[in-house]
Amino acid sequence: TDEQCEERIIAAKAKLGNRLIILGHHYQREEVFRHADFSGDSLKLSRQAAQSGAEYIVFCGVHFMAEVADILSGPEQKAILPDLAAGCSMADMASLDKVERAWQELSLILDADNQITPVTYINSAANLKAFCGRHGGIVCTSGNARAVLEWALNQREQVLFFPDQHLGRNTGYRMGIPLEQMVVWDFDQPNGGLTAAQIHQAKLILWDGFCSVHQVFQPEHIDRFRAIYPDAKVISHPEASFEVCQKSDEVGSTEYIIKTVNASPPGTRWLIGTELNLVNRLAKIGQAEGKLVHFMSPTICMCSTMFRIDPQHLLWTLENLVAGQVVNQIKVPIEEAQPARVALEQMLAISA
Ligand code: 13P
Ligand code: SF4
After folding, report:
1. Whole-model pTM?
2. 91 CB neighbour count, 10 Å cutoff
3. Could you tell me if the CB of 279 is within 6 A of ligand 2?
4. For a tag site, which of 58, 191, 265, 275 has the least CB within 10 Å?
């Protein structure tokens, strides 16, 4: 039963003591989230992974997060993902061969290695972080994208940003970069479907990737809500579209959304454009303080891969560890881990 599963997770955790740390992303379902020793957005959790001395880092999140934990932790530590099928569809939209092909095509038009800083959103495979590390680039999260892009544009004149075009565009626009200086690189077309002139004048070259969860939110959802509740506040994650973010009062990472909603006065009504599990949690917390929290989409949309981490997988992972068996370890090969670490540490250094 669910209760037995819960009790066994607690018992296994107790047996492992401080040899174990469980990290939980805000999008995790409640039954898993409650077992996390630390919760946070991608930035906070990557810092936590870097600081933890625990032998086992069990990551309740998605694959790229466990890779980051492995890259930033010591050689004796093991990063574990309770279900190996917990990927990220956005991360899968950029692959090393496609990014390398883009880089080669860009290099025929301009001096890419001297003119373009590659920036990868943390929602990407380790080999793309390694690509950035090798080419003077950097990683960003939704919590530090602005600081990272400012750094990147101080290094070189242009940025190739992957995989999430929305985070790139929303952040660039807030920095004062006009929309005309942001172009979308269609990775299925030669030269990204762009002319040499378009590439030369672009400050940000945005990969044609997106999050399948956040693309569900539409500007009309906000319009309809405001028509009923004119005093309500709207807050969205920067993975949502430009139009949605433009219509929102606040835009920020999951951690920022939580802080902002928590800091608002009792009685505030919020419309939130991010993953359902987090919005449900905020609604519950808000209830106690008289805050009214609404989900932006009229249809249910959850991150199905985050949802793959269930109590059964967590229990199986922990009980195996108790028995001395490491299952579902995520190990990034050293030749990728080293340059990826360079790009990640660059990020951590500038977003202190
Ligand atoms: P943050 O928690 O860093 O805002 O990221 C959201 C997300 O989509 C993680 O996959
Ligand atoms: Fe990937 Fe979107 Fe799920 Fe985050 S919410 S893990 S970006 S698919």
Report:
1. 0.96
2. 26
3. no
4. 265
